[in-house]
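User: Okay, second chain of the day. Same drill as before: sequence in, structure tokens out.
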Amino acid sequence: MRTTLTLDNDLSVLLAKFQTERHASFKEVLNQALREGLSHWELKKKRPRKHYETPSVDMGGCLTGSLDNVQEVLSLAEGEWHK
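Assistant: Same drill. Structure tokens below.
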């Protein structure tokens, strides 16, 4: 397949560097880079996530009784002078 790519300058430099190191054509280097990158994406996508469950902690009973009356709860927690 033929296509036109517009590469960022940093990628172009890296591909040229790999091309000279491996004594390979631009096409070979680019295809290998794409294969490795795409296979990495596939492995990352297929990896199952670990199931995490938040541990529960017994806090005991409510010390103030009902929490519906905020005024009463504040009086118990901070004293009568909480205002």
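The first helix runs from residue 9 to 22.

User: Thanks, on to the next one.
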